[in-house]
Amino acid sequence: MSIKRVQTTPFDGQKPGTSGLRKKVKVFIQPNYLQNFVQSTFNALPADQVKGARLVVSGDGRYYSKEAIQIIIKMAAGNGVKSVWVGTNGLLSTPAVSAVVRERVGADGSKASGAFILTASHNPGGPNEDFGIKYNMGNGGPAPESITDKIYENTTQIKEYLTVDLPEVDIIKPGVTSFEVEGGTFTVDVFDSASDYVKLLKSIFDFDSIRKLLSSPKFTFCFDALHGVGGAYAKRIFVEELGAKEDSLLNCVPKEDFGGGHPDPNLTYAKELVARMGLGKSDTQNPPEFGAAADGDADRNMILGKRFFVTPSDSVAIIAANAVEAIPYFSSGLKGVARSMPTSAALDVVAKHLNLKFFEVPTGWKFFGNLMDAGLCSICGEESFGTGSDHIREKDGIWAVLAWLSILAYKNKDNIGGDKLVTVEDIVRKHWSTYGRHYYTRYDYENVDAGKAKELMASLVNLQSSIPEVNKIVKGIRSDVANVAGGDEFEYKDPVDGSISSHQGIRYLFEDGSRLVFRLSGTGSEGATIRLYIEQYEKDPSKISRESSEALAPLVEVALKLSKMQEFTGRSAPTVIT
User: Fold this and answer.
1) CA distances for 497 relative to 367, 368, 370, 490, angstroms
2) Is the distance from CB of 183 to CB of 3 less than 8 angstroms?
3) In which order are the strands placed within the sheet that holds 386-389?
4) Nearest 5 degrees, angle CA 445-CA 135-CA 29?
5) CA dihedral defined by 368, 373, 375, 376, rounded to 10 degrees?
6) pLDDT at residue 283 greater than cutoff 80
7) Would residue 121 show up in a list of annotated catalytic residues for this protein?
């Protein structure tokens, strides 16, 4: 079969955000729209990572994935790729893709040089909702800015794409399909979606100790996949490997539209899990001891105890504080830890206490990947429900769930038959008493007019030119808030490659360690999302058990009035509070 050169013209706005290109399905299904982006990606990669190479193509199974996989397979053949690996039914979680790229070895002994991941992560799916695509490199991590900038540049100049008119490939069951195309043999290898990933997780965690915990009549467990791709792994890991009851799994059948829900594991959207865990509006009788959820592509997680929410910022700090004792993979010690800039400083305190290398990076997992590749970081996390380690180069929702189960198993190892198990809440409160508490909240204003959002951010930057003037405004709003010590627009110089990332968020830093951070998010598909992060550090043991909303109320008022949020956005309340 011969290679076809198809004429095309550029589309505006194909600039990848922090996690690839995300748009409405109706945008992606325009003739040549997906093809332009895929060809621009091939053109941005070094030739040896395309010609004769092996690529992974799969995703979270959202609407339009099946059609997109067939398009990319044909284009891979047209661009000289030797083989494409596809998970059964086109399903692979984002962390599983990273594991496959790093761990899976082909029949000829070669590994994949990269992957197209079809996901819009935690965004809704369906004909009128979101689709997304991103490219991961041979280390299993997201393409660096040097590549994504080149992809975007290519999308503005593209004139043709390459493809081969292959018949549709059956991706439902494992097997290899071969085609003779111009330049040689091209194969599509459909493989079991779970095997490589489960094998990797079993090498990290002590599954026997987790199994003992789950077998205790005093320990109850619940996992909600929100009808995302995490459901493709939940039964295999939690039921078959760890012995959990099947009725402990919620919404674990992957669906193209995520069952009509929003596959974002937070207190707003994971309604069924939140209610089951006793955190809903009506009280639940005897909630499970432990609950967790993953998002659409299973790279994010939410951890809950009985009637108790663990903030993502606390979660990564607690995992880091307990990893060496509780998780075999880390038994020889941690190389270092890192967090994204908007994430609370809870991890900083742990790093200082344990004398660990610590890094503060911009939002985007690729920044962690550089540190990990250089052997500088073992555990990292983001406030946006992303937690992970150097076992792969993506955040990993199920890894985080297993990390928490490992900590619970370790804390209860001599107490499995006792009267009362150590709970999630016990672990968190003990952590606060040791390290202090970082009261923390995030306000999201979604689909804001992009122009107004930029005006708001510019106004906040202008204010920083005079900190005395800022303090005059702050004290006029709330006299009980500490003085602002300084402010800046966060800029990051990568310690590994020296690259500089500017305009990564606006920070107001207070004398008592409190922070206000404002950032425009790159993960939405329409309009702009303004994210406001509010943090108050409390070391006094007598003040670490307050309601978060009460402790943060003065800073919230300052943040909203200082930024003139309602004036700029027309919103009297955020879309989501986490």
Assistant:
1) 11, 12, 8, 18
2) yes
3) 358-361, 337-340, 379-382, 386-389
4) 70
5) -20
6) no
7) yes
CA angle 337, 339, 342 (to 5 degrees): 160
- Whether 118 and 68 have beta carbons less than 8 Å apart is answered as yes
Q: Report the b/e string of 78-91 with b at 16+ CB within 10 A.
A: bbbbbbbbbbbbbb
DSSP string, 173-235: S-EEEEEEETTEEEEEEEE-SSHHHHHHHHHHS-HHHHHHHHH-TT--EEEE-TTSTTHHHHI
Q: Which conformational region is residue 364 in: left (phi greater than 0), alpha (psi within -120 to 50 degrees), or beta?
A: left
In the chain, how long is the greatest CA-to-CA distance? 75
Q: Does the pLDDT value for residue 282 go beyond 80?
A: no
SS3 state of residue 346? helix
- Quick: pLDDT tens for 441-488: 999 999 999 899 999 999 999 999 999 999 999 999 999 999 999 999
Q: Residue with structure tokens 């043991």?
A: 541
Q: What is the pLDDT of residue 522?
A: 59
Predicted pLDDT of residue 523: 53
Catalytic-labelled residue, pool 65, 113, 121, 514: 121
Q: Phi and psi (nearest 5°) for 55?
A: -125, 150
Range 105-109 average pLDDT = 89
d(CA 210, CA 407): 9
Beta bridge partners of 338: 359, 380
Two tokens, residue 96:
């599983």
Question: Residue 41 corresponds to which amino acid?
Answer: T
